[in-house]
Design goal:
Strand content: under 5%
Largest sheet: none
Structural class: mainly alpha
Number of helices: 14
Oligomer: single chain
Helix content: 55-70%
Number of strands: 0
Length: about 230
């Protein structure tokens, strides 16, 4: 983690003080190789700046926001999409029980009833306010705050959405929030979003963010990355 006064721990991971740029590059390469798959990819979303993938990302962000394992949220997203609920109109027109059943099939049982309601209400809101197209929201100011108008999307959900969407909405890049910086600290990487962003290409930023989130949540994953970087 960052030391008091903002100084980085030069001994993090490898214990070497020399060559910090080379060391950081090696850590990032290992991170991307081992854990650099986005949550959208895991959910089968081929993210593009078009209405359906963006809506699916919003659904996934809602599911990931709950106090539940990420793999369960991803599984629930896949179950919703497999049940024909992968576009905003289908979600809005679906019966509440159909949404509950799909969430249950994905293992999302603890919050299934509340989330089913939020998904229906959120789809209605998206249709009414943006004609079902989140690109309309992109054109407005305060996108993070506007995302939170959707039921079930709070600050965490907005962060999840923008971490992943920065690959197709580059004006928000680098979007490396508190959670990603926690992961960076665990790996002894720079604490600054700008410095972190310099370690990868723009198109790799969503992968970097997802990897850093994973190591922030899992000490074993962080240790795995550090070991691979040293090899």
């Amino acid at each position: 983690m960052a030391e008091p006064g903002g100084k980085r721990n030069a001994q993090a991971g490898t214990g070497r003080r020399a060559g910090p740029r080379e060391r950081d590059a090696a850590v990032v390469r290992a991170l991307l190789e081992l854990h650099g798959h986005t949550y959208a990819q895991d959910a089968g979303i081929r993210l593009r700046n078009t209405p359906v993938p963006l809506y699916r990302l919003l659904v996934l962000s809602l599911l990931l926001s709950a106090r539940i394992r990420a793999d369960t949220a991803v599984s629930a997203a896949r179950a919703l999409f497999d049940a024909g609920l992968g576009d905003v109109r289908s979600m809005a027109e679906s019966a509440w029980q159909r949404r509950v059943d799909a969430l249950g099939a994905g293992g999302y049982r603890r919050y299934d009833e509340r989330t089913a309601t939020q998904l229906g209400d959120g789809a209605e809101l998206l249709l009414q306010r943006y004609r079902g197209d989140l690109r309309g929201l992109r054109e407005e100011s305060g996108v993070g705050e506007r995302l939170q108008r959707f039921p079930g999307i709070g600050p965490t959900g907005a962060d999840i959405f923008l971490r992943e969407a920065q690959g197709v909405w580059p004006e928000f890049a680098p979007y490396l929030d508190r959670r990603t910086r926690e992961g960076a600290g665990r790996l002894g990487l720079p604490a600054s979003s700008r410095e972190l962003a310099r370690l990868v290409s723009g198109e790799e930023l969503p992968r970097l963010a997802a990897g850093l989130v994973r190591v922030s949540l899992d000490r074993k994953a962080a240790d795995e990355v550090l070991a691979a970087a040293e090899a």
